[in-house]
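agent> fetching stored inputs for the cytidine-5'-monophosphate docking request
agent> found them:
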Amino acid sequence: MLDKKKSNLLLCITGSIAAYKSVDLARLFIKNNFDVRVVMTEASKEFITPLTLQAISGHQVHENLLDTEAERAMGHIELAKWADLIVIAPCSAETISRLTQGRADDLLGAIFLASEAQKFIAPAMNMNMWSNQTTQQNIEYLSSIGMDIVGPSKGEQACGDNGYGRMSEPEEIYETIMLTQNKSLIGKKIIVTAGPTREQIDPVRFISNNSSGKMGFAMAEAAAISGAEVILITGPVSLSCSPQIQRLDVQTADEMYREAQSSMSDADIFIGCAAVADFKPVHANIQKIKKTDEDRLNIELQKNIDIISSLAREFPDKRFMGFCAETERVEEHAKSKLIKKGLDFIVANDVSKSDIGFDSDYNEVSVFTDNSHQFFHKASKNLLAIQLVNLLSKENQSLH
Ligand code: C5P
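agent> prediction call returned; pasting tokens
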């Protein structure tokens, strides 16, 4: 955890088109009372000049390992000891690979080995380079030895491809790092539900919805970064989560409720991100339903349990944050759910907008409580999750 005094941040820039975003990142840290020094690799200087970073940081940029002048001013070991935090943003596939080998033949590599500071990596590369097995194995290894990986995010790339590989936006990198430092929810247990539920009609057919689970997974990750113990109860999704999150995979609303209920007694906060199917078949056929000559088939449905409102009634001393997706009169519907379900917060988004919500990586939400309303501009679900977890932790602090 950082002290109240000015903290020392070493920003390392490597060869990527995203290098221009490092200027904003440096600015954000400086604005928030960090002393920032910059290390640039040879390749990074093809994208942005040391002079730019010198002007922003107010210090000469560190470029070479074997430079007697620079070593006299502040040598690589001194720099390594000076840093409270090291952030490599953008971090290229090449640098990721070099770090896994522990190479020390340039300044960045030597500092990385010599420093005991907490280290963050914000990858930036083409989507195929990112998904390549070698890069994924390298990332897994760096993560296993304690590096924190921020991003990358999904979107259009300089090469014209569209996928995961873009460096996360500076604000997301900054907020993620601050959340790891503040550890504001340490000692808290948080339960998050995510994804759709699946209600079987017969062995091969089911009722479900398009929920991707992204918002719930982002909430679970943000809560874990802030120090909470997190249980993530998820319906069927194709997402993975960090190893420190306890993940429980379920299919139906009833299973989701049972898992949540059995974890609630020593929990502090419940975050309901799951898009629970509203109805389930009264009877799930044991055998596959056969086609007949009839043009119609009636399947009798019954209402599913409302997980969050049942838990809010059963555990009135816990805090509850629900999510809702509306297509019209967002505020009115959100507030009525807040009251009807007995929640402390409801996070509402307008799914009539096609660029946010369900399967998107972006969202734009309003958060309502009994007596407040806060709007969060369109941002990645990861950044929004961090902002929402910050909201929960501020509320938690004001209760003590
Ligand atoms: O679907 P609805 O808009 O009512 O969802 C609002 C909130 O209620 C969400 O947090 C969702 O996870 C929760 N919910 C639930 N069980 C249901 C339906 C919704 O926990 N059966």
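agent> quick read of the result: The domain at 7-181 is CATH 3.40.50.1950 (Rossmann fold).
agent> awaiting further instructions
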